[in-house]
Write a structure and sequence with these properties.
With 142 residues, the chain is an alpha+beta fold. It has two domains: 30 residues; 85 residues, Sandwich (Immunoglobulin-like), CATH 2.60.40. It is 18% helix and 39% strand. The chain has one helix and six strands; from the N terminus they run αββββββ. Strands 1-2-5 form a three-stranded antiparallel sheet, with no helix packed on it. It has a three-stranded antiparallel sheet with strand order 4-3-6, with no helix packed on it. Strand 1 and strand 2 form a beta hairpin. Keywords: Membrane, Transmembrane, Transmembrane helix. This is DUF4307 domain-containing protein. It comes from Rhodococcus rhodochrous J3.
Length: 142
Amino acid sequence: MSNTLPTDRYPSSRYPGPRVSTRGKRWGFTIAGLLAGLVVAFVLFQNNSAPIESEVVAFEIIDDSTIDIQLKVTRDDPSEDAVCIIRARSKDGSETGRREVLVPASDSQTVVLTSTVKTSQRPGMGDTYGCSTEAPDYLRAP
């Protein structure tokens, strides 16, 4: 028995079919990466404008477990209720208290309101965690 293979039955190359060069693969991955980047940039651009923005105007430390936070909220559509989460932080930056605040519908795009937050330790500052136009029903008056 012979150890040679019939050439008409088996290909002479280990990888049959068209070969793609390393340069072609590199260009393919580069183009795919650029297209993915453009898609991500487009999606982020479409979602760029926030429908509601908030900032803390002032805060007053009442005692070792209470802080009043004055919040300015600006909405694209003031005819809808909104909810903002405000929080108290200690001097080391850790969160010591949090509260959801209903921002009722109004005629003005910008509203300033004050709310009290109870804390687990002495507050050092107040800030806003974020706002949403999807106010939960339990915050609304019955």
